[in-house]
Amino acid sequence: KNEVEQSPQNLTAQEGEFITINCSYSVGISALHWLQQHPGGGIVSLFMLSSGKKKHGRLIATINIQEKHSSLHITASHPRDSAVYICAVRFYSGGGADGLTFGKGTHLIIQP
Amino acid sequence: KAGVTQTPRYLIKTRGQQVTLSCSPISGHRSVSWYQQTPGQGLQFLFEYFSETQRNKGNFPGRFSGRQFSNSRSEMNVSTLELGDSALYLCASGTSGPYNEQFFGPGTRLTVL
Question: Residue B47 forms beta bridges with which residues?
Answer without folding.
Answer: B34, B57
